[in-house]
From TrEMBL, chain A:
It comes from the Eukaryota. This is Large ribosomal subunit protein mL43. InterPro entries: Ribosomal_mL43, Ribosomal_mL43/mS25/NADH_DH, Thioredoxin-like_sf. One of its GO terms (molecular function) is structural constituent of ribosome. GO terms for cellular component: mitochondrial inner membrane; mitochondrial large ribosomal subunit. Signal peptide: none annotated. The lineage of its organism: Eukaryota, Metazoa, Chordata, Craniata, Vertebrata. PANTHER family: 39S RIBOSOMAL PROTEIN L43 (PTHR21396), LARGE RIBOSOMAL SUBUNIT PROTEIN ML43 (PTHR21396:SF2). SMART domains: L51_S25_CI-B8.
UniProtKB/TrEMBL annotation, chain B:
PANTHER family: 39S RIBOSOMAL PROTEIN L20. It comes from the Eukaryota. This is Large ribosomal subunit protein bL20m. The keyword S-adenosyl-L-methionine does not apply. Belongs to the bacterial ribosomal protein bL20 family. One of its GO terms (cellular component) is ribonucleoprotein complex. The keyword Ribonucleoprotein applies. CDD domains: Ribosomal_L20 (cd07026). HAMAP family: Ribosomal_bL20. Keywords: Ribonucleoprotein, Ribosomal protein.
């Protein structure tokens, strides 16, 4: 909960994504659910209606649908930089799950920790950063204390 | 067997002391000395750390603002103006830049800051002329405030 005790990072994109072509950072989505449990009802509805459309809209992402006997249905998202994100979808409705999937698609895989500054530039200064001689020619001479006249 | 009292004297404690202790120690891992290992010392140190973090959040805003003001004052003195004069005349010309932005301009865009200082100087001179000259001279360019609806 302290700034030094918790991880933090600067705002950045993965390999300047979006400057040229935009590459979807979501590599793989695995939907783990149960065929008969009540908690996976929303997931099963989503798989009936929405999964195929989602997979067609995001051709860069591989969607795995794995029915297992499990108590809690999960969506495991893997990103191109290797981060894995697990979301529990117990007792969620189908539109909620599609919202969750769009959120995961739009994320880059960077860690969700405190971002130090909400901006980032590679070129912060256009007119040249200030240095002690920007507004003062060096021919003027160094700054001296003002008591020299009295001495 | 009818000796049941002995088994009643056995207490079973809570099952998750380890995890409760680790929850506190994980916030103390980067401390110095035994505070990062021993629970009793760590509890007190972690509580103080959180208190400092809370007050620090309020102090950070104040400190950042004084830093910006110091930098703007130094930059404006390079151009022969003082900080109160600069800010007052900028608000009078309806330049609604906050101190953070003006400080960044002074650091990374020195020529833009120079133009801001000149604008404030011009407005200041107009103010002096309006106060001292009194009436006959036309109002200055920068004193005309444009109200955009």
């Amino acid at each position: 909960m302290t700034a030094r005790g918790t991880a933090s990072r600067f705002l950045s994109s993965v390999l300047q994504n979006g400057v040229g072509r935009y590459v979807c950072q979501l590599k793989r989505v695995s939907i783990i659910f149960s065929k008969n449990a009540q908690s996976s009802l929303g997931v099963r509805e989503f798989i009936e209606e929405g999964v195929v459309d989602y997979a067609k809209k995001n051709p860069a992402t591989v969607v795995y649908v794995s029915p297992q006997s499990c108590r809690i249905p999960k969506i495991v998202a893997e990103y191109l930089n290797g981060n894995v994100r697990e979301e529990l979808v117990t007792s969620k409705t189908s539109p909620q799950i599609s919202e969750l999937l769009t959120k995961l698609t739009n994320q880059s895989g960077l860690d969700i920790i405190r971002i130090r500054k909400p901006f980032h530039t590679d070129n912060p200064s256009i007119q040249g950063q200030w240095h002690p001689f920007t507004n003062r020619a060096p021919s003027i001479g160094p700054i001296r204390p003002q008591n020299q006249d009295a001495e | 067997m009818v000796f049941l009292t002995l088994s009643c004297w056995i207490r079973s404690r809570g099952p998750d002391r380890y995890w409760k202790v680790q929850d506190v120690l994980k916030h103390a891992r980067h401390f110095r000395g035994r505070k990062n290992r021993c629970y009793s010392l760590a509890v007190r140190a972690v509580r103080r750390a959180f208190v400092y973090a809370t007050t620090g959040r309020r102090l950070k805003k104040r400190n950042m603002r004084t830093l910006w003001i110091t930098r703007i004052a130094a930059a404006s003195r390079e151009h022969g103006m003082k900080y109160p004069a600069l800010m007052h005349n900028l608000t009078k010309t309806s330049v609604q830049l906050n101190r953070r932005v003006i400080c960044d301009l002074a650091v990374t865009e020195p020529r833009s800051f120079l133009s801001l200082a000149k604008l404030a100087r011009a407005r200041q001179q107009e103010g002096f002329r309006a106060a001292l000259g009194d009436g006959k001279e036309p109002a200055g360019v920068f004193s005309r405030v444009v109200l955009l609806q």
